[in-house]
Amino acid sequence: MRLTKNKGLYQLTFMMPNLFPVSCYFVEEEDGLTLIDTALPYSVKGIMNTAAQIGKPITRIVLTHAHNDHIGALDGLKSKLPDSQVYISERDAKLLKGDATLEPQEHQTPIKGRVPKPGKIVTKPDVLLRDGDRIGSLAAVSSPGHTPGSMSFQDTRSGAMIAGDAFQSKGGLAVSGRLKLLFPFPAMATWSKETSVSSARKLLELNPTLLAVGHGAMLEHPQQTIARVIADAEKALRGSAGKGSRSHA
């Protein structure tokens, strides 16, 4: 496990065997620590040890979305932290239960990536989040695209944005769904590229001072870089739409 700290945010990075980095985060509050995502099943020890090193209890567990590499240690942590409250978006709570059906108003493309099978996750969320909700110093920001209920969280004190898989920085910064050959996995697990771009623009408008993602290093002063990768993703979408039109001509 690698531990990095920036703007009061602790990044804990674990490695899967195929050099696949998975990060979760601690946000420090006066009453304890908020853990954002839980990484992999074996991450329980590293997460607990880091909290002990910081010297505060884990009081909240917040999930950006319900893919297995972000909820892997959830049950293990909840068994050790029965009083910690678990938060997830109202929409992705369905995925957490193993229900991958789509809502009528959503893009009718299959949800991708590894989501838990029905009954696999024992832990039930205590709080179902909506856009604009507050969790301590964090503002919840609905940012669907990677999954229908993906959420990001902005620290209202520092401006740091913990964006889950709305972006990736491993292999080069990219909007979720934009394929990076050096690290293609987040794109392959993205439900709606179009929705991802809209969410990326929403996050940019919040002027994040730091971008923290599920896969890759944290990025300081990210606005210009985010704007550039949004433009790149939009160009790719227009190209795909053009190819589709020509193929039906």
TrEMBL record:
<dbReference type="GO" id="GO:0016787">
    <property type="term" value="F:hydrolase activity"/>
</dbReference>
<dbReference type="Pfam" id="PF00753">
    <property type="entry name" value="Lactamase_B"/>
</dbReference>
<feature type="domain" description="Metallo-beta-lactamase">
    <location>
        <begin position="21"/>
        <end position="215"/>
    </location>
</feature>
<dbReference type="InterPro" id="IPR050855">
    <property type="entry name" value="NDM-1-like"/>
</dbReference>
<dbReference type="InterPro" id="IPR036866">
    <property type="entry name" value="RibonucZ/Hydroxyglut_hydro"/>
</dbReference>
<dbReference type="InterPro" id="IPR001279">
    <property type="entry name" value="Metallo-B-lactamas"/>
</dbReference>
<keyword id="KW-0378">Hydrolase</keyword>
<protein>
    <submittedName>
        <fullName>Glyoxylase-like metal-dependent hydrolase (Beta-lactamase superfamily II)</fullName>
    </submittedName>
</protein>
<comment type="function">
    <text>Counteracts the endogenous Pycsar antiviral defense system. Phosphodiesterase that enables metal-dependent hydrolysis of host cyclic nucleotide Pycsar defense signals such as cCMP and cUMP.</text>
</comment>
